Hints:
Helix content is 31%, strand content 33%.
Amino acid sequence: MNDYYKVDFVLSPADNDACDLIAASLADEGYESFEPADDGSAMTAYVPAAQYTQAGVENALAECVIPVDVRWSAAFVEGRDWNSEWERNYFKPIVVAGQVAVHSSFHTDVPPARFDIVIDPRMAFGTGHHATTTLMMQSLLEGDASGRTVIDMGTGTGILAILAAMLGAREVTGIEIDPFAAANAVDNVALNLGDTSCVHIVEGDASALAPLAGSADIFLANINRNIITADVAAYAAAMKPGARLTVSGFYVDDRDIVAAAAKASGLELQSVAELDNWSSMTFILK
């Protein structure tokens, strides 16, 4: 049964960086979905019930080096039809960047668009509704993916990998650390592209990039600031000289931190974009 624990955090004072740090630590504990408040005052995190422990939450909070007071509570969420849950409360059909209609298989009133992507999200992240997913999709639409090799790190629902394939990519590898999200991505790829598409989903973390060394023309990572800065050297190692890296999952105020880590790995900043105080950044491997 796909039971979960829903863990609510309240931060005082509000601090987006503290939310990011706690989320990164919780991800190491098996948490797979996060809903932060825009001002950093609160966050809700979800973890499969079998992986929830009080000690895991306390360890994540202890690793936060920013001095904030955090109150938290956990509630068991019985397994349910998550597609119906998304349909009722979160996921409505949208058009991203005027070109990509994103909807679920249970939607009937879908706006027309150049690209039509069907996403049944379950608990995985990435439907185009979040600003960071929108920013990443805009970057793909503005670039040239035709005939390119693409790596989508932290693929979530697989939405970026699917769009890259629709844009003519020759080969796309989506890497996802969470097994439930990886399985969801496989299903979404088949739903949109069939079973013989150019998209391959791999379950794993940055270590899964080792066999892909020097292969990517385009590298995508929509995760969070701390994971990106920790793993950006591995991203660079998977890229061809002159390849493009686009990252998101962090706030505008975090750009200098991300840029410094990227520069240390031989990546040169090409452009930035922002939406609702969230940022994306594109770099070129020298």
